[in-house]
Batch of 2 targets.
Target 1
Amino acid sequence: DAEITQSPRHKITETGRQVTLACHQTWNHNNMFWYRQDLGHGLRLIHYSYGVQDTNKGEVSDGYSVSRSNTEDLPLTLESAASSQTSVYFCASSDGSTGNTIYFGEGSWLTVV
Amino acid sequence: QKEVEQNSGPLSVPEGAIASLNCTYSDRGSQSFFWYRQYSGKSPELIMFIYSNGDKEDGRFTAQLNKASQYVSLLIRDSQPSDSATYLCAVGGQTGANNLFFGTGTRLTVIP
């Protein structure tokens, strides 16, 4: 079955370190997204991509970057991790043809100490 | 900036009752509306979507949309303890091109 997978699922890192969260989908979806979820804020969009070589900033993009070199992958990089980036990160994808139905990965729990 | 508002709850209903979850949105240009369910520690999963004014039914779930009032709701009939979760309302623009904006979610507890 097609799916969307994230790794690592849990990570603890130190302030100032660079961290990359991987996201891989096998649906061949053009659209991919990264959200973070925090208490009181719900899901907030970090970056998104509508295809290879396309990347766009979302609502809370500061301190994050993404790259899209192929259809399947959209890695999220925290350039210099900060305690404010402790959160749950969800990768998601959609094909856009059936409205904006977005399907989520299992999530990556990141703690910055 | 699109805003999506939900009552955070918690909303408690007895087993077998109807649970009513509500959502309002700020952008009149919004075209697509989604309800996701999220169990604690899990990722959101799509329950249903609605694009046109009126009701849309899928099993025990009914989504209701009123674009004039910028209001969307989800009714859960014959609520079960397994329905206990946080329900997220999401709003999007024209199909095929836009991402979704999410509310903070309503926590539902179904009491056996």
Note: The first strand of chain B starts at residue 4 and ends at 6.
Target 2
Amino acid sequence: QQPVQSPQAVILREGEDAVINCSSSKALYSVHWYRQKHGEAPVFLMILLKGGEQKGHEKISASFNEKKQQSSLYLTASQLSYSGTYFCGTERSFDNYGQNFVFGPGTRLSVLP
Amino acid sequence: ETGVTQTPRHLVMGMTNKKSLKCEQHLGHNAMYWYKQSAKKPLELMFVYSLEERVENNSVPSRFSPECPNSSHLFLHLHTLQPEDSALYLCASSQDPGQVFEKLFFGSGTQLSVL
């Protein structure tokens, strides 16, 4: 039930681009993205809903392919501040509060100067 | 500052101790959550409270006992823990106790070590 994230880790130079993928074996209603910097709280980035448009946050955008049951997070012209672990959370239905929302294992992103 | 404050930041306890984790949210939210984050596991939902009523207990052992006295405060009472319970415990809140799992606001967590 837990979504799969790839890659597990990625190292970039400042200014480079990266893509993080999140996929599920189950049909999805929504995908949520969070970023957690070392020693800090996870911070919400965006939610993508079934049938919704591609979202953006600063130079980070994401898409949701309902047919493929996956979402991709695009980090463009990465900055040092983008370093952290990115989690996707997937929601399989509109109801059963909490039971259908599961986080992925995370992708550790390191941006080097 | 995310509006969700957790204390203490670090806690070391023996297996026979009783301790409590505290969470306070200053956002006027109506739902609060406890999550467990272990080193090599994803974020695991433990408990959900909606308007001070527990709506979710995700098969958590009884040695973890939550308490939500009002919509701003959430506690996690700990007793007779095991070393495998060592983890980062995160509190979160969200706006409405509706059926759509909403945007979560997390606290910085309590790093718990059980000896």
Note: The CA atoms of residues 16 and 80 of chain B lie 5 Å apart.
